[in-house]
Specification:
With 353 residues, the protein is α/β, with parallel strands linked by helices. The protein has 13 helices and eight strands. The chain has a single domain, classed as Rossmann fold (3-Layer(aba) Sandwich). The longest helix is centred in the first third of the chain and has 38 residues. The chain is globular. The relative contact order is 0.13.
Amino acid sequence: MPLRRRREEARRGPLRGLLRRWPLVLLFVLGAFAGAALWAYTPTLPADVLIARYTDDRSIFIDVGGVRAHVREQGNPQGIPVVLLHGSLGSLQVWDGWARELGDTARLITVDLPGHGLTGAWPRDEYTVEAYADFVEVLVDTLDLDRFALVGHSMGGAVAWTFAATRPDRVSQLVLVDSAGYPPPDDKVPPANRIARLPLLGEISSYSRPQARVRRSLASAYANPAQATPERVRRHAELQRFPGNREATLQRARLQEPLDPTALRRLRVPTLILWGGRDPWVPVADAFRFQNDIKGADLEVFSGLGHYPMEEDPKATAAPVAAFLRPIPPRPTLPSPDPADHQVQPAVVPEKD
């Protein structure tokens, strides 16, 4: 046999063997993939267990548009009503520090948005910023709030300014804390968001061990990683496993369109912007964009804080809010008409004799 032919057959031998064994190779790869997925899988936690763990004597559950929403009312019942909205993957507990600082003068209403905390999924099955703004409207109507101050953090900030832009007669004052609003450049989109949008991988990722992810995420979000305490990590991770929350998060990541910040230029609501100068998620440059786009907005940057300034230093960050909040003036009323102007006259005036 010629030398060249023997060399060609020698090269083809391993390839032929591999082709004959490819079903086994594929089976091995799929088995390894399934094993890794099963190892990383964390089941949904029972709702009653989490409700017992993360409610207190101020917690109430009320029907808001068909969802059993977890709400807390605290502070001064006679004070200015203030509705506070948490960010993505957050819960109403992020406002606990401000509740202590502002409770003497304000009536504070915190809520777990649908797909978050102890509220879980809602019949509308939509978790966009615009849908959340509708939820807030039903919430305040249910609580008989006519006008109120509205506070939002991160994604909750986007919900807050969207609500104020579309229902300006309801909002007396607006506070934005490290708020979402401006689409990030393509190279700054978090990898987790990219994975969530992929078929199958998104589902696997959303059900994989959240505790490790939450620990890394919070450690990077706070300016001081020590703020990512075991208690906070556990709360964030466990509330993500409340029934319906992970499915809602996946849907939001896949369906939320980029926000249109042009509406900010039409806002005429007194606005205070607070920002952590070391926020790694929403750049401090966005704070100045908000100030530029919202007419008359005030801005305060806390150079030593990160993405959760209200948790990292509640006292310092609540102080400008306390100074900013003012009693809500009553709606202007028209003067009462003179009763004489409304005397009923006969259709035909009789002639005098």
